[in-house]
Amino acid sequence: MKTVIWKLNLQSDPNKVFNLLTTPEGRTKFWSEKATESEGVIHFTFPNGQTYQSQILKSIPNKEFHLDYFDSLVKFQLTQTETGGTDFTLINENIRASDFSEIHAGWISVLMNLKAVADFQCDLRNHDPTKTWDQGYVDN
After folding, report:
1. Residues 100-106: what's their mean pLDDT?
2. Are 118 and 87 in contact (CB under 8 A)?
3. Average pLDDT score over residue span 11-33
């Protein structure tokens, strides 16, 4: 099993970033087409029609958010910077070696869109179900 680790520096404060991660409205701004939540489970729907029921495992406001995500563990860690922004770390553990390259690259797409939404209020995704990651589009 392998682990993906990515870091991102955001101008936005941890509260804003945490709200993007932990609210249905926030998640649909940068991550998925739908992301409703019920009883500690996020019901993700992605542009290609794929769905996943993601169990929330840990939530510490403005600091940490952990999920079961496609049979792996995803940890989001937020630290406020000296300038009031956020140093953001994503750790995705327990990834099968055969899936690692795609997941490693896929998180870049998600995280760069998180930065665009958090810092510039701009969604970079195309929202076209015929132009998704499956067809080689990075702006899915």
Report:
1. 95
2. no
3. 98
pLDDT tier at 52 (50, 70, 90 boundaries)?
A: very high
pLDDT at 123 over 90: yes
User: What pLDDT does 85 receive?
Assistant: 98
Q: State the DSSP H helix or E strand holding residue 34, giving kind and residue range, or none if neither.
A: strand 34-38
- Least Cα distance to 2 among 109, 99, 102 occurs for 99
Nearest CA to 13 among 60, 79, 61, 74?
79
Q: What is the CATH number of domain 2-135?
A: 3.30.530.20
Between CA 121 and CA 114 the distance in angstroms is 9
Distance from C-alpha of 11 to C-alpha of 119, rounded to nearest angstrom: 6
pLDDT in the model for residue 80 = 98
Compute the distance between CA of residue 21 and CA of residue 44 in angstroms, rounded to an integer.
12
Q: Kind and range of the H or E element at 74?
A: strand 72-80
Say which amino acid occupies 93: E
φ/ψ (deg, to 5) at 78 = -125, 135
User: Tokens 């869109």 sit at which residue?
Assistant: 113
Residue type present at position 19: N
